[in-house]
């Protein structure tokens, strides 16, 4: 895929052009299961408005950033992983492993996750 294809991937999912396993569809936030899960629970929490990365989102709309975290917490409860623990992760820019430049929050859990020694989480 080209950079523009990757950039528009989430917008196409949000528009319903590309199928996805949706776990939350709110007014401003969509959450979908990752197609290449890194844990038993791996959900991507995506704002419906495109911001390039977490820093850009935080500067432009801190309330939406907080909503992503809140939605992730709600999903963790529904998935039964809140009590045992879960990880929330933003990859910000290429060196951190970000490959789709539409900010998205990874919700990971369902097993002991250990440290982040395996390299960057792609996405």
Automatic annotation (TrEMBL):
Species name: Saccharopolyspora gloriosae
Q: Which GO terms describe its molecular function?
A: catalytic activity
Q: Where is the HIT domain?
A: 9-118
Membrane-crossing segments per the record? none
PROSITE patterns, alphabetically? HIT_1 (PS00892), HIT_2 (PS51084)
**Pfam hit, one:** HIT
Q: Which residues form the active site?
A: 104 (tele-amp-histidine intermediate)
Q: Where is the organism placed in the taxonomic lineage, from the top?
A: Bacteria, Bacillati, Actinomycetota, Actinomycetes, Pseudonocardiales
The molecule here is called Histidine triad (HIT) family protein
Gene3D superfamilies per the record? HIT-like (3.30.428.10)
Question: Motif Histidine triad motif: which residue numbers?
Answer: 102-106
